[in-house]
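Crash report, auto-generated. Payload:
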Amino acid sequence: MTQAAVRLTGLRKHYGDVRAVDGVDLTIAPGEVVALLGPNGAGKSTTVDMMLGLTRPDSGEVAIFGAAPAEAVSRGAIGAMLQGGALLDDATVGEMVGMIASLHRKPMPVTEALRRAGIEDLANRRGTKLSGGQKQRVRFAVALVSDPDLLVLDEPTAAMDVSSRREFWRSMHAYTNTGRTVLFATHYLEEAEEFADRVVLMRAGRIVADGSVAEVRALASGRTLRAEVPGVTAAAVAELPAVTEYDVRGDRIAVSSRDSDATLRALLSRFPDAHDIEITAIGLEGAFLTLTADEENDR
Amino acid sequence: MSVKFLILEIRRVLRSPRFLIFTVAFPVLLFLLYVGIFANGQRSAVAPLMVSMTSFGAMASALFVGTRVAVERKAGWQRQLRLTPLSGAGYLTAKAATGLTLALAPVVLVPLVGALAEGVSLGAGGWLRVTLGVWLAAIPFALIGLLIGQIGTADSVQPMTQLVMLPMALLGGIFIPIDAMPHWLLRVSHVLPSYWMSQIGRGAVTTDLSTSLGQDVLWVAVWTVAVGFAVVRRYRKDSARV
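Recovered output after restart:
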């Protein structure tokens, strides 16, 4: 058996009464590209911090290529793009990446890291004179320069516009094609859908779904039914068969259903005037909403 | 830590106009000004003033760099560095080393102006004391800077540094020459590392109100150990908090 790139066992961390991470088990094989999804406060960043050794878990274990995070870091096996900050105002892009490179044992050339992040032309620019998207790319170059086997990205495309986001993922693709392991936290579902081999969904400090994009989508199987229904009431919608969730605004209804055929038949027999009927499969976004909405119901 | 890392650190500080004004231009200008006001054409008064301003420049450089730790913590740069093989102790050492390297500027410049423009002449041993001696005595100030940088926030380090530097300079016999101090103030100054720092140089230029080199070195060493201990303690507490 090959050694796992990441192995988290029974990971827990609480801050006061808040259980930020509440028993996370996760194994990532080398070469996997994993998206970590979840609403704010789900424990994604805390999990990432513990993986990087920036935060010590209350209990549980972290192994990165079989070693403790600190050891993996000192070997240069982990590169990370942290959320926000992490740049200097009084240094140029080239200098910042150069400083990080100078601390690693086997860095790639600074120009190479800049090229891969698509910012060769910014080498002489100061940290203060960068746009949000450019800053993200500098952080990416900083994460890349140690030539790590595992790349951890916390919200990598925050503050990027659509075109730079696309550009960013293109450079990421080039990197992962070399067989590196990537874990990225994001709240852009389409990024997870397009880019990840595997999706891990967290809420309230736990993993609630873990699998390929198709598998996670299937977990919240079902369809959404939308229609214009004159004279509809919320109570009437709630009584329809197989309904998991619904939203009524005037005559307009949106219903999540486990069995859209049964729901539709019942709807049409009760409200023959229903029109503009639309049935769509739940995408990852729907699955995400369904799975994380459970949170509210639990409380 | 690597040489390249240190060079880049030094280059960053050199970009700060405040740093250059405060620690390079200021001591030289103050020296020339003080000579004009206090020396009254007396040769013997010039050298002690030169020592005072050298001490001031070295103290300011060493303090200034350490405090930037707070700014880098706020910027998240420290977190990024924790993802490299650089240890926390290595980071602090690098900062202190940067501060001391930059302190070389006033330590060389002020005596150079003293020798060339103000006609101060000393033996080789004397020059060594007012340059190398004063420079080494800046070590506790680099540590005090680190302590301020560890305790303070990006917003509070500035006033905190001033709050430390001003009394050190005023009461330690740097801005107010010790021969002009009332007796009680002179006693107070004996507590401060800035006093012992300038004494290391003063002993080489005058016997008036100067203490023995052994005593000076001892007090600087005591300060170094005490503040060093505080810095390490604070660092341990900081890293335990994660």
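Post-recovery validation: The first strand of chain A starts at residue 6 and ends at 15.
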